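Hey, can you fold this one?
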Amino acid sequence: MRGLMGPLPLMTATAATGTGAAGGFAEWGFIMARLKWGGRLAGLMLMALAGMTAFAAPALTPSHALAQSAAPAITPSAASAPAPANSNASPNTGDTAWMLTSTALVLMMTIPGLALFYGGMVRRKNVIATVAQSFVITAVVTLVWYAVGYSIAFGTNADAGQNRFWGGLGDAFLKSVTMDKPFQIAGAAVTIPEYVYMMFQMTFAIITPALICGAFAERMKFSALLLFMTLWSIFVYAPIAHWVWGGGFLGGLGVLDFAGGTVVHINAGVAGLVCALVMGPRKGYGHENMAPYNLVYTMMGASLLWVGWFGFNAGSAVGANTLAGAAMANTQIATAGAALAWMAAEWAVSKKPTLLGMASGAVAGLVAVTPASGYVNPNGALAVGIAAGVICYTSAVFLKRALKYDDSLDAFGVHGVGGFVGALLTGVFADAAINSAGKVHSIITQFEGCVGTIVWSGVLTFVILMICKYTTGLNVSEDAEMEGLDMALHGEALHEF
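Sure. Predicted structure:
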């Protein structure tokens, strides 16, 4: 179900025939010919996928198709309608246990996973401030989600027209969530208590704004951070989550996003790029040494992200079922492929493979397979991973340098670009033998979902930044930036022993 993370809760995968990857590649070529990414980037994509095309056709025959018994698949037309008031599958203890575990795994991705990943990549004088950002965002977004976020994202608006865009405030402060109330998400019954589902979704709402911090690392005021993340969670994250997963119009169009390619990664990546452009580069960027403080921290963080991502993707099946198993396998395979692809590209260009490159490649693979994990077969997952490794490396190294923006820790280069690649390739490799939603996959529909997310996230992020600029201010002073945010903002510092 996340179809729950699909266009809608999709807990049923039925047997089906091939996915039509060749046709998908024709659509891909049509889109790429019109995008202004440049011939080199398109060429790298096609080269990365060329070797996989022959193998990405469905590896599973109809007799091996996954069969989910938890709930029927929801069609796009059913997605936009308010959920019926009375029917609900009985809570299942196995599903509930897995979802409790997945919730803890996804929370671990932010604290300490992302905190360590980002903390190791900044300079020593900014490590504490960077780690503190992930920690305080966890607290802030928890209360925002409890107050209004969950209601906006997964509530059912009494007005069917408005429900296409937001869930309303009927569940504000969780007032409609009880121990035994039957509930559905976008018309699909679930087999876990609503409190568990609310908590699982909360962890996604937490990590998404935390990812943005990588774009403006080492230069945002702490007061601005608090205001920005509060407003962004309410007006950017929650509505987009509703559009795709909560019964909104993008899910109704048939956009496939199993675990957050659009909702989490494109959303956070685009917001990060806007932040980097508005706030400008760090002092000395391009002239001073800004080497990472401790790559061991970064490797530890990347490892926690890798493990936690099984909760992210396999947990998005919203049950202990065969779809969760497929999503887990696809996550592992794509991540390994991306780590090695980034390493190979870096080795070819820079003559040395680096730990930072391998860790970044792994995260790029995790990002790209997120929307695809519950829709593609393992061969498709590997193709997605390889493409993400090569393209995200190109973006993080060459695109950033060419356009001269300071995306400090490559939030856009990895999450924005990787999410876009994964979302589009879901439309190429979706396999109906893995998930019945693969019957109607389309790269054009996927592209439309990406564009909708990019426009809303980009425009609203800019507006929120302007609100912060004229209230709290955005950038720390030049003196504070030179001293380091650890001491300037928090009065703390790392000490050598």
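Residues 74-325+443-490 form a domain with the Ammonium transporter fold fold (CATH 1.10.3430.10). Let me know if you want another pass with a different chain boundary.
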